[in-house]
Amino acid sequence: MDNVGYQKTLRPSWFVGLIILFCFNPFQALAKDVAIGVFAYQGEQAATSDWNPLISYLNQTLPDHRFRLENHDAESLRQAIAGERIDLVITNPGYYIAMEAAFGLSRIATLESSGLSAAKALGSVVLVRSDRTDLQELSDLAGKRMAAVAPDAFGGYLLAAQEMLHNGVDPESDLKEIRFIGLPMDQIVEAVQQGQVDAGIVRACVPEQMVREKRLAPADFRVLSQRQENQFPCALSTPLYPNWPLAVTRQTDPVLAKQVARALLSMPQTADGMGWTVPADYQPVHDLYRELRVGPYAYLREITPEGLARRFWPWLLGALMALLAWIIHTVRAEHLVLRRTAQLRDSLHAREQAETRMRESQEQMEHLSRLSVLGELSGNLAHELNQPLTTIGTYARTVLRRQDSGRLTPEAISEACSQIVSEAERAGGIVQRIRHFAKKRSAVREPVDLVLIAKEARHLIIGMLAHPPTIHFDNRLPDHCRVLADGPQIQQVLLNLIKNALDAGRNLPPERHRVQVIVEAVDHWVHLHVIDQGCGLEPPQLAHLFEPFFTTKPDGLGLGLPICKTIIEAHGGRLWAEPNAAGPGMCFSFSLPCHDLPT
Ligand code: ADP
Fold first, then answer.
1. What is the CATH number of the domain that holds 252?
2. CA of 549 to the centre of ligand 1 (A)
3. What is the pLDDT of residues 500-521, one digit of tens each?
4. Between 353 and 441, residue with greater pLDDT
5. Which atom of ligand 1 is nearest to the CA of 536?
């Protein structure tokens, strides 16, 4: 029994008296047999002398039953429980929790000694010889030799083993040697004293008992990592654990269990204050076995999927939760990505549609702008076309008149016809150019000769006006230089600029009607300038020049320049205006990147 105090309560005289009483009990023959199996770790004799007083007390208190003691070692106690041969079990806390897990043992009372809590009654002590000054703490035991009772001894090994683990020494791997000597524990103390081992593990109070019995001198030994527990009378190296329980098996009659529990709780304390109390909490014992992975928790050492799962379930649960969180996150992210992609696709589609609409309306606007330029320029178009038509009519009439008067010579017919053809071609050319310019079309990009376009524009304007102004053309461009552009659009820009230049000189003397067009290469750019000597612009007007609807003309729209700017910028160029440096008037310029023809 792991309790020193209780042993002192066993008085032979009292015990003999109870036996006699038991023998002469007249009801004994009818009484039901109740076997109490005890873990007799110190041998049968000791166990019998320890527990018989309890048997006698129970027989006396519950005369309907005949309680008898069965002494067992650990294995035979296990077999007796498994074979359902015993009704009540008294064992140490370690074996109790093992049987609890294996056979459903259930405690009904816990042994108690006066002044001590039943929950804190058992501990261990690690002893060294007092001359071993190198050993002070449990952590000093690494690489040392130790003695203990047995690998499964509760107070004789396991309590100290756990405490050593807490101090960073694994008794299974960090010791030089662990020697299991068995009982009695005096042998362990002797092994330490004789220097066979460096330290020994014994149940708390064993050294004090040996001192009392003069088998050990206090000066001979020292306790490692000694600790104090409230009111506990002996030296300790470990925390305290609950005392021995008395338990019932699954088969025990519940009525009997109740009667025994009541009898135990009302059992008078011995002179040394030993008795029974309500069952203690054995969870700390479970925790110890689990941490050491022994007894009912030995499966934690097995490297099977089940063993690993049972051992690492908190980690596995954590990993599972993390995996679950990751899956949820991934699914959510995927969902968000899909949703965002759909939104982007929609907005891209909407943008494409808006761009298409904008392009269409821009083309429409450019077309209208071209028509507007033509409208403004074609004030004299009827007159212009009328001229060749009148000439044609005159020549035709001359031919008829000569025919009537008989003066029609082949030379005259020939001259009249060639004049008629030339005038008809001139009129056709004007119509052709206007139709080409006014045609509705989509923009393209191709290498174009800016000089040709400028000449064409000049031609178009001169052809449409009754009194065409002087438009000087100055080509300073190298031969190979082209621009990648939409020809008609650039022509439209030029027409706008030249028309504005002509408008600027309209109410001024004829010498200020002069317009100059210069095309030149600057670095890798082509610059085109339209220079007039017209009315010019004041700085405040210049600031708003390219804003839509800015106009100073009574019939102006104010859209020509903004459209020109849009066209030039869409070609990667720039459109700007500045006062004419060489006199009155303005200079409107645009630049386009030069596109060299392959040589
Ligand atoms: P609109 O010709 O219909 O007015 P534009 O956008 O072509 O529209 O021109 C805007 C304004 O810019 C004109 O009304 C005029 O005041 C000014 N402007 C354009 N070109 C010249 C120029 N060469 N000289 C002076 N003013 C000009």
1. 3.40.190.10
2. 10
3. 999 999 889 988 999 999 999 9
4. 353
5. 25
